[in-house]
Amino acid sequence: MIIENISLRSYRNYESLDLAFSPRLNVFLGENAQGKTNLLESIYVLSFARSHRSNNEKEMIQWEQEFARLEGKIQKMNGSLDLTMIISNKGKKTKVNGLEQTKLSHYIGHLNVILFAPEDLLLVKGAPQNRRRFLDMEIGQINANYLFNLSKYQTVLKQRNQYLKKIAFSDKKDLVYLEVLSEQLAEAGSSVLFHRLQFIQKLEEWANTIHQKITHGKEVLKIRYKCQLDVTSDMSEKELFDILLEELKNSTNKDLKLLTTSVGPHRDDLLFFVNDKNVQNFGSQGQQRTTALSLKLAEIELINDEIGEYPILLLDDVLSELDDDRQVHLMEYIETKLQTFLTTTSLTHLENKLSITPEIFYIFQGVVERNRD
Length: 373
Prior knowledge:
single chain, Rossmann fold, Glutathione S-transferase Yfyf (Class Pi), Chain A, domain 2, 6-stranded antiparallel β-sheet, 10 helices, 15 strands, 24% strand, globular, DNA replication and repair protein RecF
């Protein structure tokens, strides 16, 4: 899978930009605050219909403009397709081959992207919501059903929490409607749980293989799903539904006191163990970074395993955060497997480490020049 070209109109600091890319390594080179990450972000937005940097979509629209437009031509094994994303003050529209998509779950998944940025090195020791977001973004782009049920779960969860607040201090508590919401939540939540557990099982296989290669066989990586429920990856969705619904019922009084839903996928987390030691709490910074790198490279292999072709890799100024040994392992993927886009302020990290010649885009104040002397 590659993105052949991209067209931006009124997007961030790009008034009008049309670029064609190399199918191998593309380097966005320039000082900070010139537009490198904006350009990288545009590819991410075409994939996920959202930014990885901000939840405020209006920030992506150029100052005093009514809308931003992004277009990209994607080449896949089974042919090419055109993706369009229009962002305005009224919301966003997505199109595939000119046809507007009524649901995001119908759009996401056409362009598969893996982003690796400095903040991803905090994936291991950061907050649990970072790891839940990691799961949701990666599973969502290869499984439309997961994305649908996750959206449904979040909607019902909000309704249930609002209703808990409404009836908590009421003399007459209508628990029948709460039971209806709990059943709806368990239905969507059991699907989310099922796909998370299946994904983690596959992710661990790839991540451990890569982790052992990086550490020259000295470390074994294990990934565990931290859940308040007693669940395993061999359970069916029906079994998970029964367990989650029962726990929601048992937590009713607790939830009424807390005014929020205390159990479910929105509370879950990931745990990482290196040689059976919890790397989040007791691992060195080097072990934590190696684990994060192993996870990112495992995503690449897992997506290829699931859809039959490699995703596009986006590296946002991450090389400067890795030592030489980890850079070498990352470079192996850049050179041999997939189309890559890399932002950097210097070419130092690439010198004498690549056997291929990168396509270099020099960026200064939103102006892009290609392979200048």
